[in-house]
Each structure stands twice: as C-alpha cells, then as structure tokens.
Amino acid sequence: YNHPAFRRRVYKGFDFAGMDIDPMDESSHGTHVGGIIAGNDPNIRGVAPNVKLMAIKVFSGTTFAKGEFVLARSIRYATQYGASIINLSLGSPTLGDCGEFSAYMRSINSAIDEAVSQGVTVVTAAGNEGYGQATGKCSVQQNINQIPVVATNETDTLAAFSNYVNYGHPKAISAPGVNIFSSIPMRYVCNDQFCEMPYDYMDGTSMASPMVAGALALIRSAMYDDYKRVMAARQRKSGNTPMTQVLSLRDFFHAQGQRAKQQLTIALTPAQLSEQLLFSHPNIPGRKVPEGLIYEGNRHPIYGFGRVDIGAAVESAARVFTAAGL
What we know:
The chain is α/β, with parallel strands linked by helices. It has 9 helices and 8 strands.
C-alpha cells in the first residue's frame, strides 16, 4: 500500500493470516494484482487507474491461512466495509483436501452468496493446473455466483498453464494472464543506497482475474454516470414535481439495488446488469458486438464468454439507460 502506483488510494483492511490490522504484502503477489487493477504512475497504468483498493490479506509469507474460516471472513469483511468488487486471485488447490475442509468450503460458499446478494461482484482466478475445468468440490471457483477468469497469452490463445471451463461454469470469461507487467513491493528492490524500479512481470490466472475486476469497476462507474444523467433529465422534464432521490453509487449497486431496479423499471438489478454487460462483449474471433442494449454472448468451451473487450463493454455501460430510452 506504500507503492507510488497507488498514491494513497489503498484502504488498509485486515490481515486475516496474521490476525492484525496491517495487511502488508509478504510475497509481492497481492501488490502485483493490485497494480493490474488500479496502478497509476508514470510506469504502469491499471485497468481502472483511479479506483480505490481495500487490502485484505489471507496469505502469510509462506502459505494460505486455512484455519478459522479465513477466506469466508475476509469476504464478509470486504462486503461489510463497502467493497463493490472482490478479486480472489487464488487457485483451486490452495484450499486443500475436500474431506478436511468441507465445512470450510460451505463457509466460503455462504460468504460469496451473501456478497452477491448485496450487489457485490466476486471475481476469481480459474487456476494454473491446465485442467479442462475451473470447478471442483475443493475449489472456490465452483460457486455458481462468482466469475472465474481463464488466462490467455500474447497471441490471444489459452495460456499453457491455465485451467479452462469446458462448459463447466456459466459465468466464466477470459483475460490476458501472460507476461503481465505490474507493481511489486518497494522493499524487494530497495537497499540502503538506492531503489531499483519496483515492477516485474508475472504469469497466471491470478493476473487475468484483476483484469476482469478492473473492467467491472469501469463498467459500474460508467453505468452510474449514465444513471445520474437519466435522473437529471427526468428532473428537468418534471419541472417542480418532486423526483425520486438519486441514489449514491453504493446504494445503487448494493443496499438499494432493488429500489434502483424499480426506479428505472429494468429487469435486472444494476449489479446484475453490470455482469451482463461484461458478458456481452467477448473478444474472440468472429465476435459480433450487439446492436441492442445487452445480450448474453455465446459461450465457448475453452474461453467461457471469451476474452473481455473492456473498451466495448464500458462504452455500452456509458449509455446503457439512455439506449433503453430511459
């Protein structure tokens, strides 16, 4: 969180591995992931460079903290303290043996379901075992409500290490995950005399997942801006007639999502609609950008809905309600 790429945009959440209030990265993984989402300095630009991050730690310097239902507690913490999108860059084997951690998996499923029911989108890394599935009884990716992300390489084909969906998950999508340049902790490159550049290249579905989390942050921001334009236009047309209150971004996607749905007379809550916009814009050979408001794109046996086209999805989000005649 001290990295110049974040410029005081990191809220220090909690360290569930060490059970303290300092979620300092001990391995560089989290810092690299954070830079992909929100890095913004002269050397890197994240997908959503002005977004705020909440740092929550579930890994020690050597291992994943499996005890005390750590991951479920961290998801609930993020939901409680205002996260709009949760990125889980941790793969399927991390969670260990099914028999030993069955109660643990139930706790994770409950936490994800609760988060999604409150308008939070949960994005996960599909895993790096090269399996023809991104699901399993021991895997956080098996939850039906989260979005697993498959990694592609520089040629826009499946990364050699990446798990893929094989029709196994209705929400899977793909994003770049090979040779990704992003931030690493300052202490790894500094000594008493000088500091080298605190950046490095990494591969993994852990790098692909924050690409999608960042895309969703942009989609939600653009949707909210369009919502405010729609409400302002209604206010102008109504003259002196009192209008429905314009909701805050948090209420629009979270606590008041159902109210927003009624307010705009739309079929889905704004949080659900933001996911549909993500899936409406896959970037695979032969894709067709929809002419209408949204559609659920064709699913591919390897790439899910395909590699997300961030620009097209955000462009649609920027006019989603005006395009619907609202």
